[in-house]
Amino acid sequence: MDLKNKRILVTGGHGFLGKHVVKKLQAKNLSVIYTPSSQQADFRLWQECAWQTMEKDLVIHLAGNVGGIGYNQKNPGKLFYDNLMMGAQLMETARINGVSKFVAIGTVCAYPKFTPTPFKEENLWNGYPEETNAPYGLAKKALLVQAQAYRQEFGFNAIYLLPVNLYGPGDNFNPDSSHVIPAIIMKVTRAKDAHQNYIEVWGTGQATREFLYVEDAAEAIILAAEKYDKPEPVNLGSGMEISIGDLVGLICRIMDFGGQIHWVSSRPDGQPRRLLDVTRAKQEFGFTAKTQFGEGLQKTIDWYLAQQP
User: Could you report the per-residue pLDDT of 149-173, keeping only the tens digit for each?
Assistant: First the structure.
């Protein structure tokens, strides 16, 4: 799909990932990009979805209700309902309104709790997701079923992408809903400011995660919008894996914090391991992550510290 002279709706365009996607689209000199904020458009409402998808050529659906493990534990029903309703109604109204292409963004949380690493796309249906992530993950995974069903019945060009955990400048640093990297950066900053010689971190530190720099994720989404038109889901990742323990140690070293780590093992680790097989993205639309993890962490930390009074 040539994106020039197309009318593009980016839901969640003011969010962490959305801002980077919109910036990259604008850099291509695309003339008409619609980015309604959550205050301007409630995509849980049918009439809003119908209105916003009218006379659009491409929809990139990034909007979502999302957070870390603690947020997921507190809001399982809201996470399931909000994400399911937004995605299902946006795709249906896009189909009805004749949108040429729909890019649905899933989540690594859709994978079964115990998945052989690296996670291959065909492993998606081999078990139930990790319990703390399941309502969110299943609501997002329903979009894959919808996309494939609509392609089969209506010839609707919907694709489904599975990004791993994202990080980078502009990440969510709200302590009530942040993911692990911003949470650790905040804890270290506060410990240093308070001259405290330790931080507390949830879990055991043994779980592993893969992280994708947000600008790389934005590039992958646009490449897929331009070049990918198949029903199979596609992983978006960096191909790296790090334990939470090593991650915390790395952030502490970068931030020059020599205090102790107090692990709160009564709190959940979440999914035991996360590492994606990223072969399909490279083969289908030429995506390979470019940002080295240490470089991306440094940029994220520098951005956060620059925001502090």
Answer: 999 999 999 999 999 999 999 998 9
DSSP string, the chain: ---TT-EEEEETTTSHHHHHHHHHHHHTT-SEEE---TTT--TTSHHHHHHHHTT-SEEEE-------HHHHHH-HHHHHHHHHHHHHHHHHHHHHTT-SEEEEE--GGGSBSS-PSSBPGGGTTSSPBPTTTHHHHHHHHHHHHHHHHHHHHH---EEEEEE-EEESTT----TTT--HHHHHHHHHHHHHHTT-SEEEEES-S--EE-EEEHHHHHHHHHHHHHH---SS-EEE--S--EEHHHHHHHHHHHTT---EEEEETTS---SS---B--HHHHHHH-------HHHHHHHHHHHHHHH--
> Is 80 exceeded by the pLDDT of residue 126?
yes
The angle that helices 16-27 and 214-227 make with each other, rounded to 10 degrees, is 60
- At 31 the pLDDT is 67
Per-residue pLDDT of 229-275, as tens digits, reads: 999 999 999 999 999 999 999 999 999 999 999 999 998 888 889 99
Catalytic residues: 136
pTM of the predicted protein model: 0.93
Confidence of residue 85 (pLDDT cuts 50, 70, 90): very high
Query: What residues form DSSP beta bridges with 261?
Result: 199
Domains and CATH numbers, the chain: 7-167+210-241+273-291 (3.40.50.720)
